Predict the structure.
Amino acid sequence: MFKLIYHLLLILFFINPVFAQKKAEKQIIESFETYKNAILNNEPDVAVELIDANSIVYYADLLYQIKTADSVTIETMKTVDKLLLFSYRHRVPKDELLSLSSGEALFKKAIETGILSKRTVKGTSLGEIDIEGDKATAEFKIDEQVLLFKYHFNKEKGKWKIDLTALSESDNASADMLVENSGTTANEYFFLILKMITGRNPGSEIWEPLE
């Protein structure tokens, strides 16, 4: 009898972590799919609940820069940060930007206005997932093709959330490469993109603080 109980306990010892791993993987995939569908369906209130505290802090810092940064400060910003600042200042009315008071609000505005494009998630999925405690990474796939960078997740209050800041290094590298291949300066390239999107040339006010 003792040997039987021992063997059952031994089996449970090895099986329980496997079940826990599978459960966590399922939760991560569900979080990602809900986030993706929220962007595709223009549901900012849903999407914002699926990004982590790091992401909220990032957008809060970006909001401060959007409101206060002058041309000197803008030129010191990383490529993606600068593009986002230009995008918000060019595509969102000044009074709307000034009315925003949190990182959550700025993130939701990105979805509402298309600054966070549906193309960033369309046709995407997760591949192999690695979990260590309350942190996880997952392969990022577009049309089933695995890309070099990975999505990062943090478990906060029992819920797996996406850490958008972990993508910043790869995003900046990709943006720098696009600028280099364009044969123009970064600013010229960004302004061309904004004109293509909105049909309007960015004015000199894009370099000026909002307040």
About this structure: Residues 2-198 form one domain. The chain has nine helices and four strands. The chain has one domain: 2-198. Confidence is low (pLDDT under 50) at residues 6-15.
